Amino acid sequence: MGHVSVLSLFLGSLALSSIFGIQAESPYVYLTWRITYATIYPGNFPPQRGILINGQFPGPTIGVNTNDNLIITIINDLDDPFLMTWNGIWQRKNSWQDGVLGTNCPIPPRSNYTYTMQVKDQIGTYMYFPFTLMHRVSGGFGSINVYRRSVIALPYPEPAGEHTLLIGDWYKTDHKVLQKRLDNGYGMPMPDGLLINGLQNFSTDRVYTGQAGKTYLFRVANVGIMTSINVRIQDHTMKLVEVEGSHVLQETYESLDVHPGQSLTFLVTLNGVIKDYYIVASTRFTRPILSTTATLHYDGSIITATGPLPSAPAFEVHGSMKQARTFRRNLTANAARPNPQGSFRYGEINITRTLVLGNSAEKINGKLQYGVNNVSYVNPTTPLKLADYYNIPGVFDLNTSRDKPTPGPMTQGTIVYGLALHDFVEIIFQNNEATTQSWHLDGYNVFVVGFGSSEWTPKRRSEYNLVDAVSRSTVQVFRNSWTAVLGSLDNKGMWNLRSAIWHRQYLGQQVYLRVWNDETSLTTEYDIPPNALKCGNAAI
Ligand SMILES: *[C@@H]1O[C@H](CO)[C@@H](O)[C@H](O)[C@H]1NC(C)=O
Ligand SMILES: *[C@@H]1O[C@H](CO)[C@@H](O)[C@H](O)[C@H]1NC(C)=O
Ligand SMILES: *[C@@H]1O[C@H](CO)[C@@H](O)[C@H](O)[C@H]1NC(C)=O
Ligand SMILES: *[C@@H]1O[C@H](CO)[C@@H](O)[C@H](O)[C@H]1NC(C)=O
Ligand SMILES: *[C@@H]1O[C@H](CO)[C@@H](O)[C@H](O)[C@H]1NC(C)=O
Ligand SMILES: *[C@@H]1O[C@H](CO)[C@@H](O)[C@H](O)[C@H]1NC(C)=O
């Protein structure tokens, strides 16, 4: 625990600590995580090499209260450079700790890095996973559950207990084999199945228990690589309460769609007869449909789950889009603060910039790449954030970016959008491909104001929800459709906007937003952390 005492010394001064993104008056949570390879046995799959954290697959659940400081040392025992990213954690004023290649040098093998961050004003369910290469195909992911402080009221009665379900598609193939396949210009194969907390159809091992008559909170994160999933529980309904840090108008569903990178929280009341029931997850919009089960066990039950599984929703996109429109913010619930990111009355703010981002796939020099407005992102060897800080020229310029779809052919570039701190942006994700997309923005939640089919036009603005749209960090875009979001850019930094479909991100479907003002002030952005790793031209 030597590093803990060194850090505590360093944290001794409040003045110092607020420079580097930690608040001395809020509690600290210290974690030391060793990242290793080991053989895992994911259910009905043959044993394979997994990525473990302190010997665990999936990784440990982080449970913290909102505003806690998290100090996490990652020891990289893999044979590759490694970064962990904290999906949905806003990293206010602190893109230094985001753990993506545009802000951090990867942690070299056999060395470590200590992340220092605060989970500020965000109560909800989030996840972490490796950002580098295709590591997350083999594990390294886990849940981040952010609880309220006792002074904050929840907009629902305290549940009798809670369960966290990390659900995602899974490959029998090692991450390096899949990565090589992508590097060689081929696409990603269909996954081999789905896992719930690392297991498939192991109903006897994946059992979530509760007492008849009581209500339990279920936290679900889609940690998968490419497929949207649908979750449902035999003979039970789910009352949605929270989506990525927003408390929603509580509605009851038979099943819920969760797209890659998304997370949500719902309540389940155990109002059936005392027995066991199936929890089912199945892929959405795929043929064939992959599915897996776990068990909801009533205390005292001696009857295992039987009977037909609750049926999957209709294959069509329509029902899923309709469900997405029912996710609305509860304007009177203050648990996550009414104004966590951006403005409360977002519908009254004038848009200062519109970006229409179209995704596409194309071969460049015979190799499959994915792009945004026909530019496929290439990671520079010097992280963008370090290039900015040290004024290193030639890493990026702000004119590679394109505000709207642009005729091809697709080119490669380091795409950074130059945006002003406090800009109010409208981003339209235009998907003219036949597969569902999922986009994630670091550093922010944005208001998801509209979903529609075919081509977005400015006329579609009249259909936006300008009152109570849910605010979240990951949005789906249905096939041949668009999704519109609005966001107040009040978090200075270099922020990754990426496809949450991991091979698409890896092969170029990502950009960075540089949210900037020329004034250097610790009130808008923390200073570079003293332990920042240096690489590329920043190492010289
Ligand atoms: C992290 O690396 C430094 C040297 O770079 C070493 O002194 C320290 O002990 C390491 N910490 C852990 C927890 O392994
Ligand atoms: C898991 O269970 C689902 C639902 O019963 C079934 O469709 C699937 O084939 C099972 N998978 C395996 C690998 O047994
Ligand atoms: C909205 O939040 C309030 C708490 O402020 C809660 O009492 C109410 O039930 C919630 N409404 C819905 C529809 O979820
Ligand atoms: C928004 O724009 C309208 C017209 O373009 C202008 O009249 C109004 O003052 C603006 N509102 C704000 C808050 O800037
Ligand atoms: C990019 O923009 C800068 C100003 O920001 C300008 O000096 C430069 O010529 C532009 N480069 C290209 C290739 O257009
Ligand atoms: C990319 O280029 C192709 C070919 O010119 C064009 O049809 C397509 O609309 C472009 N897509 C985007 C998203 O810019």
Automatic annotation (TrEMBL):
Domain named Plastocyanin-like is located at 35-149, 162-301, 382-519
InterPro entries named in the record: Cu-oxidase-like_N, Cu-oxidase_2nd, Cu-oxidase_C, Cu-oxidase_fam, Cupredoxin
Signal is among the record's keywords: yes
* The family this protein is said to belong to: Belongs to the multicopper oxidase family.
Q: Which UniProt keywords apply?
A: Glycoprotein, Signal
Kindly give the Pfam families that the UniProt entry links to this protein.
Answer: Cu-oxidase, Cu-oxidase_2, Cu-oxidase_3
Q: Which residues form the signal peptide?
A: 1-24
Q: Which gene encodes it?
A: LOC110778057
Q: Which GO terms describe its molecular function?
A: copper ion binding; oxidoreductase activity
Name listed for the protein in its UniProt record: L-ascorbate oxidase homolog
